[in-house]
Amino acid sequence: MTQARLASCIPLPLEHKLLVTVIEKAKDWALMHGVGMRDRKHFTKDAIQIAPFVLLPSPFPRTEFNKAIELQPILNELMHKVAHDDEFLEHTLQNTLQVDEFTAKLYDIWVKVREEGITQPISLGMLRSDIMLESRCPHTENQCAKHTPYCSWKQVEINSIASGFGHLGPVSREIQSYILRQMGHGDLIKNMPENRALSGLCSGIIEAYDLFGVPSAVVLFVVEEVSYNICDQRFHEFEISETRPDIMIHRKTLNEIYEETTLNDKKQLILEGKPVAVVYYRSGYEPAQYPSSREWDARLRVERSSAIKCPSIHYQLAGTKKVQQALAAPGVLEKFVAGSATERVRDIFTGLYSLDFDESGERAVEMALEDAERFVLKPQREGGGNNLYGADVRDALLRMRRARERAAYVLMERILPPTVAGYVVRPGAAVPPPITDLVSELGIFGVIIGTRDKIYCNRQAGHMLRTKLAEANEGGVAAGLGALDSPYLVDM
């Protein structure tokens, strides 16, 4: 089947001289407005380079965008309920814990703090539901002409520890608005939805801080040892400082938390003599980023404390791929979502299959071996770059068909989004870039604050769009695989 296409917001290709001129202007605009990151190859704290960005906003159906916005509070509440259902998490993760060391260590911390007694019942969830348009119709052998060039949208995943793009999402709209004005198409900006992701996410941290209720307390951002995505991270701090100058923010690695914090007799996490009100993890922390017992000890100390965590340990467990696969199983959603919302949520799930050593797991393996191109093999990881596609799916399943590690993965049906022609501007690349076929992934942010029994706030909080080459499998911007973008809403 030929992959479906969407039309660019203006006719392409652009005239050569115009293209060169507008890209040079846009690159300067990017550097002056925080559309940047540090260079991985030539790292220095004293310089940034532009982050890859798509020159023109990518088309996205208006009805589907609005549907995703409206659904986000329901997904927030779903994740909140899952995170507070101890029995469900225990049952769902039991096989994964035997083969995935990182998830097992998170689980051990969760068990330990539950046995000791939860010190802080309030959790702050800053979630991002990542979705893609699906061009294939499940009801026909061929593409459904009624829905050309797309049929629906499906959820790629929901992230409980990856609220990145709070700054880069909104600023993508601003740079593309600037580009459209420079090209004489400022009238098109009205079709680019407002994006207040930065203020929306930061307001969640501020609300959690106020719920903590200690005026002298501080907010702690947990960061990697080396931060490349510095613009996106720092603008959260700048936004909070501008909105609430009374809130002091500290950035610390887990090693620094181990060395510089203590727990007092009230189980307050003390940093530089002040109690910590909110701990905000700025990374998914891959296993390689927890190389020492000191960092795990620091994570346990934070979880034992009275600080409001974003995410708390049970929220992070709820965000694992295994839990998301379990939610897609028949009859499971009804446990957490009531009424007509159940079908609305189920409709966005693509096929997700367990690879446990049981009858359904064996069927999933056979299905993937028969047609590997239909599937993606996903481990329990955050941050992109870990999934397997096509022939690699087949090779991996043949290698670990009888191995315990198989249970650490889930199998997902691959989404086939429509393509659009466009230009991707990258640091150090030739100008002008070639026109290429691109596909996009939309992320909708949500904020939810609550305890097991009470929800204080629950809202949608902005969006982001990442775009990549149509033939590329992964699309992480920080990893250099994708590009910043924003939606251009079209009526179809």
Automatic annotation (TrEMBL):
Which EC numbers characterise this protein's activity in its record?
6.3.2.3
Please list the GO terms describing molecular function. Answer: ATP binding; glutathione binding; glutathione synthase activity; magnesium ion binding
Q: What reactions does this protein catalyze?
A: gamma-L-glutamyl-L-cysteine + glycine + ATP = glutathione + ADP + phosphate + H(+); gamma-L-glutamyl-(2S)-2-aminobutanoate + glycine + ATP = ophthalmate + ADP + phosphate + H(+)
Record text on cofactor binding: Binds 1 Mg(2+) ion per subunit.
Q: Assembly and partners?
A: Homodimer.
| Protein family (similarity comment) | Belongs to the eukaryotic GSH synthase family.
Name under which the protein is recorded:
Glutathione synthetase
What taxonomic ancestry is recorded? Eukaryota, Metazoa, Ecdysozoa, Arthropoda, Hexapoda
